[in-house]
Specification:
By secondary structure, this protein is an alpha/beta fold. The chain has one domain: Gcn5-related N-acetyltransferase (GNAT) (Aminopeptidase, 3-Layer(aba) Sandwich). It contains three helices and five strands. Helix 2 (34-48) links the parallel strand 2 and strand 3. The N and C termini lie far apart (37 Å).
């Protein structure tokens, strides 16, 4: 379905949740655990504050990566501008 990220993001996600913005690892350093390390520190902080997190990705290869960190796909679509497929993913606050 062609839609905006806003339209694909469930209305249950909002101001109280943490939106994780752009994260990228240079291709020559992918697979070294850098992205996971950066995200784990942020997710630990979110868990301490009992905050749910959400993000979006336009990379199908990233979906399993985020799933391994506790995210699930809660929305998806085809971007109205770029015509690229995207996924909205959310992660509940986990006990620590």
């Amino acid at each position: 379905m062609v839609c905006s990220l806003r339209d694909a993001t469930p209305t249950t996600l909002g101001a109280e949740d943490w939106y994780l913005s752009i994260l990228g690892v240079a291709p020559e350093h992918q697979g070294e655990g850098l992205g996971r390390t950066v995200l784990q520190d942020g997710l630990f902080a979110a868990d301490r504050m009992k905050k749910r997190c959400f993000l979006d990705t336009f990379n199908a290869r990233s979906v399993p990566f985020y799933a391994a960190l506790g995210f699930t796909a809660v929305g998806e679509g085809i971007d109205t501008v770029t015509q690229s497929r995207f996924w909205v993913m959310a992660r509940p606050s986990l006990p620590f």
